[in-house]
Amino acid sequence: MLNAVLEHPLLRQQVIPMTVHTYEALGQMGLVEERTELIRGFVLPKMSKSPRHYIVTQRLAEWLRLYLNDQFCIRQEQPIACKDSEPEPDIAVVAGTIEDFAHAHPTTATLIVEVSISTLERDREKAAIYAEAGVAEYWLVNPEDSWVEQFSAPQAGIYSQCVKLDKSAVLTCLSFPHIQVNLSDLLA
Q1: 69 — phi, psi (to 5°)?
Q2: pTM of the predicted model, to two decimals?
Q3: Closest among 77, 176, 83 to 129, alpha carbons compared
C-alpha cells in the first residue's frame, strides 16, 4: 500500500518525510491530526474501528489484564516511538508502569497486537517496524478470516518465526507462556 504510493514518481516528489521527533513536536502544537500515526516517516490516517474490531480488542485486553502482574502495563492505541515510526498498536504490553512513560513513549514492547479488519496490508508492514524495535512478539489478528499470525524471534529487523493459527487453535503467548487464548472464543 504505502510502498506502491511511494513508487509512483509524481507522488514521491510530493511526499515530505518526517522524523518521530518532528511528528511529536507538531502533535504537541496541534498541527497533526489526532487520528494519525507515523509509519516509516509518513503521517497516515488511522482507520475507524468497527464494532467487531472493538470487541476482539477488548476481549484480548481483558484476558491479558487477568494474567499479567503489575510489572507490565497494557497500552491500548497508544504510541510506541520507533526509529522512523510512531505506530499506535491496538494493544501493547510494555514492561513498567504507566507512570514510567509520563515523559516519553516506550520504544519497545514485550507483546504487540494488531486487530486487522480493514488494515491487513498496513499491519503486515508494521511487523518489520516492531521487529526493528525489538518487540519480542507480535500478533496479527484477522477476525474476518478467522486466523492469527504469531510473529516472534526478532533478528536484524525481521521476525525469524511466524506461525499462522486458525480459529480451532489455542494461541500460547511465547512471552508469557501461562497465557493461552482459545481462538474460537476470541474470534467468535
Answers
A1: -90, 180
A2: 0.86
A3: 83
